[in-house]
Amino acid sequence: MKLFLDTANIEQIREVAALGILDGVTTNPTLMSKEKGNYRESLKEICDIVRGPVSAEVVAEGSEEMVLQARDLAKISEHIVIKIPLIAEGLKAVRVLSAEDVKTNVTLCFSANQGILAAKAGATYLSPFIGRIDDVGQPGMDLIADLIEIFENYAFATQIIVASVRHPLHVLEAARLGADVVTVPHKVMMQMLKHPLTDVGIEKFNEDWKKVISR
Ligand code: E4P
How far does residue 28's CA lie from ligand 1's centre (Å)? Predict the structure, then answer.
């Protein structure tokens, strides 16, 4: 399973990259709006840190404008992956970009049928938003299970990025289902790392070691 960080915050990306466990980053217009500075320079910096897939989203209604924005974003770095919304115009754009070998991440997926269409269009990645599905009272993780089964049935090459992750249990369930990628907010990444019994254990070992070396 690959672990992506779901943020545009450079400090957070540096911190997790330094752990040696970061495979990629996903951004979106909302995440970019929370950070200061020029978005192209920020994306370049993120790509230089991560040296893996970094998703950057197009904001357009028509496929032609999406393709133009995508080509422009792709010039920033070889690591840029173009995020495209799961609408009819988005599918057309994915088909064009796929033929040009531009990597895509089809986003805002809320149903298995949408996912099938994205895979058929040639998406490199598909991002089902499980937290937002949970938010409206439906089990988001069921969508991941459905998509994994369907993509295996037909050997679709599209990789599933479990997105809109809210807590560590989402990561655990996604891993048990065998999802290709989980994109995790910084807070959840830190929650995955921490365990109170680890801290208590270190404290006890440190105390006991002092007794050993003072003999
Ligand atoms: C990832 O690609 C998405 O942009 C992100 O996970 C959305 O998460 P949210 O539902 O918390 O905004």
Answer: 7
Find the mean pLDDT for residues 97-117. Answer: 98
Is the CB of residue 57 less than 8 Å from the CB of residue 73?
no
Distance CA 158, CA 45 (A): 27
**To test the ligand 1 pocket, which listed residue (82, 129, 161) has its Cβ within 8 A of the most ligand atoms?**
129
**Whether residue 194 lies in the annotated active site:** no
Q: Assign residue 70 the CATH number of its domain.
A: 3.20.20.70
**Which domain does 194 fall in, by range?**
2-213
d(CA 107, CA 115): 10
Alpha carbons 16 and 21: distance in angstroms, whole number: 7
Q: Give the mutation target among 105, 160, 164, 188 for probing the ligand 1 site: most ligand atoms within 8 A of CB.
A: 164
46 confidence band (pLDDT: 50, 70, 90)? very high
What pLDDT, in 10s, does the model give residues 63-98? 999 999 999 999 999 999 999 999 999 999 999 999
Query: Ligand 1 within 6 A of 163 CB?
Result: yes
